[in-house]
Amino acid sequence: MSATRRQLLARTGAVGAGIVFGGALAELFAGTAAAQPLGRTGYGPLVPDPDGLLDLPKGFRYRVLSREGDPLRSGEGPVPSHHDGMAAFAGRHGRGGVHLVRNHENRVDARIPVPVTDGLTYDPAGKGGCTALALDARGEVVSERVALAGTAVNCAGGPTPWGTWLSCEETEDRAGTNGYTKDHGFVFEVDGADPHRSGAVPLTAMGRFQHEAIAVDPRRGVVYETEDAFLKPFGLFYRFLPEKPLGGLGSLRAGGRLQALRVPDVPDLSSIQETGTTFDRVEWVDVPDPLALGTPVRLQDFGPRGITHAQKLEGCYWGGRSVYFVSSFARGADGSAADHFGQIWRYDPDHHRLTLVVVFGPGTDVQLPGESPDNICLAPSGGLMVCEDGNGAQHVFGVTRRGEVYAMARNAQNIGTAEQPEWGEFAGVTFSPDGRTMFVNCYTPGTTFAVTGPWHG
């Protein structure tokens, strides 16, 4: 095990974030071929939005594509609440079109549920699911409809190499709980362009637990999965070895093997604090009961050597030849081995190597210090876009290839009061295939924004 450390601190106006980098990050910050290096302050300070929705740097502009409570263009009902994970795919409405698949993290008490829809509903008692938006080449919304209904707490997920979306239920509720008629805690495949092709079929072999996000190895077809468990025992990092890897829509239903990551002699990843710390031979252990028929997976018996846990495992994405996954934060008061404000880990399957590559430091514009990174995506500028899910004001942060941190967007919608302001988190940040538009959700009030501007300038 080796360790290196390089700490960089940057501030943009009143917003600051400390981030520590280590290890090989070339592929993490590769960006696109058209990427241009940013200045030392990113795109400049945020400009207050006179409409009180979204603060952006000068030269950028937004459009509201969809907002909870407005009518779905399909006529199926109102736009559901709690916009969360999202992905953008090349569309079918002319050159340059895009279709978005968007999760709704609705629980049983959701204000606006995903409408129950014939052929797309798993459990009529479930209030969550996905909606799909199709945009033409001008960025105009031409359709908006239900893509999956009757699921629960659809948090994040991830795209597949064949152009579908894997939507993850972040719950372990069984049939008979909260009025549900079926067990929940599964992954569902969604074809945003034609939802009836995918239907509402749980991918049961991928496990039943508090799913957060997934990433697919485009060479091997292995699916990596995070488990967002806030309280001890914390979640696990998984891989799913499908019987029919890279087989296209529906192939994951054929089943496969679910395994959990074991780092020898490290029961809790929060105990690792130095960037660049590397474990050269991690292990993968078969999950005894993926359906968790008797015991939640993270509580199951993985043998005398145990298994490796981590608090708040959230974002997960593929970059270059590795999978990256996020631990949003860790707190000793909750039972973690140590405190941190956010980590990004890199697993290299070619060498079975795990490395801590990014550590987030305390911020300056939150009530409880820390950035709490959640959804993360690669940016056309050759860096990262990070959705903040903490306390106080909520931002989308950018991280340049030089490690500079800047504020890209700030939620200006106060959902609290003047005395106790509160802002909804950001989620689902993603870019159009051509890199010209950033799409991002505000969780509450549920809003989907399209942000354009001088991304490569």
TrEMBL record:
Superkingdom to which the source organism belongs: Bacteria
Alphabetized PROSITE patterns for the sequence: TAT (PS51318)
SUPFAM superfamilies hit by this protein: Calcium-dependent phosphotriesterase, Thermostable phytase (3-phytase)
Protein name per the record: Tat pathway signal sequence domain protein
Native source organism of the sequence: Streptomyces longwoodensis
